[in-house]
Design a protein that fits this description.
Strand order of the largest sheet: 1-2-9-4-7-10
Strand content: 15-25%
CATH topology of the largest domain: Jelly Rolls
Order of helices and strands: EEEEEEEEEHEHHHHHHHHHH
Radius of gyration: 22 Å
Number of domains: 2
CATH class of the largest domain: Mainly Beta
Number of strands: 10
Distance between the termini: 40 Å
Length: about 290
């Protein structure tokens, strides 16, 4: 996990558990979130992020609001030419918190299988852009910064308001589909994760994390499926795509390396030469 300087977190407690908070730090910063029996709603005030889950990746920017169900996530907060400050508010929804919040009954659209037929729930969904949501989180941030005023009753009201707000603004049915499976853990197939992130800079241990496996279990099952080691397969496929792009496009070698999942140009060049006995630049000159 990468480190971040000047990190700050202000949290709100509800019956001895943290249920919401404001976090600030500087990018770049990468961390893994293992959400077990809990979900999360995050609103970004500053910064940009690549949030990665088993089957897909999300590009988040200031103003975005994300709903995440129980699953494993990798969050890469990225450097930005406009500044590296990151600021977001998170609301943590554990099963015990939801049970305390709705002692009588859940909202009539959660857990009632009313999601649109045939619509598969994702592990996360970016909520529709809404002035109401933006205004809500701006006010919630002010409440969090005056945490001594946040009583349990006020927390009850603010979280119930948020849940009703995201339900009422859902037009696609994707939010409702996710809410119906909020605490059901995902069981992603190994092949699905590999295919979704074949050309991203994910390392083998990160893919294992997304599959809810240890690195050793992931490597063993990977070899059973693909007949070779995960690291050898991933590097080979990424180099193969890079070679095609060098020969068939005018894209720069640097942009091709990034597109194919290589974060370091020097490592990409070494691996490419080892595989094809020629550097990327030499191949470009030869084919040009």
């Amino acid at each position: 996990m990468s480190s971040s300087q000047d990190a700050m977190f202000t949290g709100i407690q509800y019956n001895d558990q943290t249920v919401m908070g404001l976090r600030r730090f500087n990018a770049p910063f990468t961390y893994q979130d293992e959400l077990v029996d809990e979900a999360r709603i995050v609103h970004v005030f500053k910064g940009q992020s690549a949030l990665i889950c088993a089957g897909e990746a999300f590009s988040l920017k200031a103003g975005d609001t994300l709903l995440m169900k129980s699953d494993n996530f990798i969050n890469r907060w990225l450097e930005d030419a406009r500044g590296n400050s990151v600021e977001f508010v998170g609301v943590r929804l554990t099963q015990s918190f939801i049970q305390q919040l709705y002692q009588a009954s859940l909202p009539n659209m959660i857990g009632t299988n009313q999601a649109k037929e045939g619509l598969e729930a994702s592990s996360a969904v970016v909520l529709p852009d809404s002035k109401l949501l933006s205004s809500y989180f701006t006010l919630l941030k002010a409440y969090i910064l005056q945490s001594n005023l946040m009583t349990n009753k006020l927390v009850d009201l603010k979280v119930q308001e948020l849940i009703e707000l995201i339900i009422s603004t859902d037009r696609s049915g994707r939010v409702l589909a996710l809410l119906n499976q909020l605490f059901i853990p995902s069981q992603p197939a190994l092949q699905k994760v590999v295919n979704a992130h074949l050309y991203t800079p994910l390392k083998v241990d990160e893919m294992a994390f997304l599959c809810h496996m240890s690195a050793s279990t992931f490597n063993r099952r990977f070899k059973q499926v693909y007949g070779t080691s995960a690291n050898k397969y991933l590097i080979g496929k990424r180099l193969e795509k890079a070679r095609q792009l060098i020969k068939l496009t005018d894209k720069s070698v640097t942009s091709i390396a990034i597109e194919c999942g290589f974060e370091e140009l020097s490592y990409f060049s070494r691996a490419f030469k080892q595989q094809y006995q020629v550097t990327p630049s030499q191949l470009r000159k030869h084919t040009g």
